[in-house]
Amino acid sequence: MRGDIRAQRQLADCYLNGCPGLALPDPALACAWHIALIASESPEVTPADIEARKLSCGKLHTEQRRKAVNAAKAIVAKIHGRDLVLPADFFEGPWRAPRR
Q1: Which one of 10, 37, 63, 78 is at 20 to 30 Å from 16 when CA atoms are compared?
Q2: What residues form DSSP beta bridges with 19?
Q3: Residue 19 domain flag
Q4: pTM, two decimal places
Q5: Is residue 46 one of the residues assigned to a domain?
Q6: Residue 97, domain member (yes or no)
């Protein structure tokens, strides 16, 4: 919560894959931390972070998406003291496979 990008990456990975004794997998929280990391606008954000966000957020169902957005907003508010506004089509962006 101090804005450490490396720690945020590690936490997102723990929520994505689980970290024994620390965190159980939670795809929505993995997505939230990836969103918050990118929203930091830190020069330490890499293309790999953007890809990780796409992957962690891309497979969420509706309730998980809602949880991810609410958590990301709370994280950004706490760390950066500002609102996070995501586009309405955030989960339906061009990186998603087209619907058949």
Answers
A1: 78
A2: 23
A3: yes
A4: 0.84
A5: yes
A6: no
CB atoms closer than 10 angstroms to residue 47: 7
The answer to the question of residue 62 being in a domain is: yes
Give me 77's structure tokens. 């508010």
Give tens-digit pLDDT for 23-52.
889 999 999 999 999 998 889 999 999 999
DSSP string computed for the chain: ----HHHHHHHHHHHHH-BTTTB---HHHHHHHHHHHHHTT-TT--HHHHHHHHHHHHT--HHHHHHHHHHHHHHHHHHHSS-----TTGGGSTTSPPP-
Q: Cβ atoms within 10 A of the Cβ of 64, count? A: 19
Close Cβ partners of 26 (under 8 Å, ≥ 6 residues apart): 15
- The Cα-based distances of 54 to 1, 20, 71 in angstroms read 22, 25, 17
Name the residue range of residue 23's domain. 5-92
Cα separations in angstroms, 83 against 4, 7, 10, 23, 60: 19, 21, 23, 26, 22
């998603």: which residue's tokens? 96
